[in-house]
Amino acid sequence: MNVMVHRPKWFRNGYVFVSYAPTVGINKDGEELYVVDPETGTRTGVIDDRVLEDVHTLIDEASTTSTSRWVENKALNPGLMAVPVYFDDRSNSHFEQLITEPEFDGFESATLGELIDSRQILARPGHGSPSADLRTGTVPYIKVSDLRAGQVNINPTNRVSEVVAQRFWKGGESGLSAYDLLTPIRTSKNIGDFAVLMPGQERLVLTKEILVLHAADDALFDNFYLLWAMSLRVVRRQWDRIVFMQTNREDVGSRYRQIRIPLAKTKELADTVSAPFRDYYLGVQELRGKFLEHLSESDKYHIFLSSAEAVEEELETELDSSVE
To answer: What keywords were assigned to this record (predicted)?
Structure first.
């Protein structure tokens, strides 16, 4: 028995229509989401539903918009079927366009995964996440919220003992190096924003939700070049595509390997374009060194810029001894 199935004019055999528009008419609380007037900063009576706009364009015009596209069935493996934003390839297109511009003459491109597999970049996750009752001691424990504005900010209220640190390090050293690049890869809106581990901060315990990148010694580029590349807008925007929600938390898994960066063909070119980043962080370190030297000359300060000065305070003893 043959059954006639109606196929609308927009139907494409072997393809799925995907909309990755940013709004669907409801906010994070499940309430209606309204368009906000940019001039007055107040809500209008118009529902902000750009997904619906994409659907109307599909039905009425059999066409796509800047936030929708057709995807082949074979591209929809089980891990990606419910993640429309993954198919928003505008950031990839913008990158490919940038790399052909005259100022990028002398550059190739490669994904982080390709550079990791060829051992030009060393990548590792954070050490782990000590439970709250273990967070007493002298070794700073760094959470994703401690990575801000290009710096690793030590929170003196989050530290673990040396023995706990070595348990998470799986040895006597952290495995971290000066000028390592750190970024959250889970549970943060700052995924893809990189912070620089400064000299003196190497003895830290990093939460497992942090990714550490380090340029190999024999690569044609160093960490400052890598930071320059990761800071380009066309590179930073690629992260938005690979961030999925997992149990209501942002997560990139191993998809960070898909990030594509410019790759200078010579060390001289790499050093030239990254010079401002190198000058800034080396200059900051020179000032940090002088400041830390001053702090070390007295025990009156309570400032934490590195892991070296993170000594365990005995506040009650100090207070008691100060009372005659």
So the answer is: DNA-binding, Restriction system
Q: Structurally, what CATH architecture does the domain formed by 90-278 represent?
A: Alpha-Beta Complex (3.90)
Rounded CA separation 22/155 (Å): 35
Residue 124, helix vs strand vs coil: strand
Dump pLDDT digits (tens) for 28-47.
788 999 999 988 999 999 99
The rounded distance, in Å, linking the Cα atoms of 49 and 87 is: 19
Rounded distance between C-alpha atoms, residue 89 and residue 91, angstroms? 5
Q: Which two tokens stand for residue 92?
A: 């990839």
Per-residue pLDDT tens for 212-224?
A: 999 999 999 999 9
Consecutive H or E run containing 5: none
Q: What is the pTM of this model?
A: 0.83
**pLDDT confidence band for 312 (50 / 70 / 90):** very low
Enumerate residues 6+ apart whose C-beta is below 8 A from 92.
Answer: 238, 241, 260
Q: How far apart are the first and last CA of the chain?
A: 102
Q: Which tokens go with 244?
A: 């999925």
What is the C-alpha to C-alpha distance for residues 9 and 79, in angstroms, rounded to an integer?
30
For residue 271, count CB atoms less than 10 angstroms from its CB and return exposed for 0-12, middle for 13-18, buried for 19 or more: middle
Both structure tokens of 140: 């700073």
Rounded distance, CA 139 to CA 166, Å? 10
pLDDT digits (tens, 9 = 90+) for 206-252: 999 999 999 999 999 999 999 999 999 999 999 999 988 777 788 88
